[in-house]
Design brief:
D-Maltodextrin-Binding Protein, domain 2; 14 strands; about 25% strand; binds glutamine
Length: about 270
Amino acid sequence: MSYSMSRRQFVGIASGALAATGLALAGCGGSQSSSSSSSSSSDSSSGFSKSSYTVATDTTFAPFEFTDASGNFVGIDVDILAKAAELTGFKYELNSLGFDAAVAALESNQADAVIAGMSITDARKQKYDFSDPYYDSYVCMAVKSGSSISGYEDLNGKTVAAKTGTMGATCAESLAPKYGFTLTYFDDSSIMYQDVLTGNSVACFEDYPVMSYGITQGNGLQIVTEEKDDYSTPYGFAVMKGKNQDLLSAFNEGLSKMKDSGDYDAIVNKYLKG
Ligand code: GLN
């Protein structure tokens, strides 16, 4: 996946105006950003090594990032990033690429950071530096509501959906040989759910907070298994190991401040209503 597949780009401005105006749509689909904000132009006045950072995110991962009914790109990740920027003064452009594409953009230096409900796993910690954790999560498996599939034993010979590059996919891959199911991969959570609803896949693996939120929004699925032991890790904001440390520190500083002030709880409650 290349950066040029960016579906949407959003610009964050570290000023008080941000909260009032929301994120401005800066560009849409198609070609690479001409502002090339991942270049290393420094901005000594702000104290940051770059005048603007490129942050990559997922496309549809509600309540962390998604497009709301009014067409605004919103979510817990989107708001936390905006608040951290407002509190600490960094500027950024948010690119909604998809999870796997966001990580690929980070690895190819086309993004400075990822915020995408990204699980802090031991394997990933070898390659990326993560912020302090900001939300607890674990993997679950969901089926179409009313399905006769009630556990892994019912998956023999069936097709099961997973999202490319995710912890849910890693979990599914570890179970597939034992339970005799075949995996089919998607880049986007909502398209993965659709595959289950149409019956092509009998189940899908997803993060619990995202699946449970989707169910409350009427996505037509139901959770049948929960992996609270081996596949339970919090989410973090990621940069490549040893790179963009000023941005990482600023994110952590902003996160800590918003946890102390109650702004963090307000953001989460805005989407999850307590
Ligand atoms: N939390 C999961 C992971 O990091 C899924 C993230 C996502 O799909 N955006 O693998």
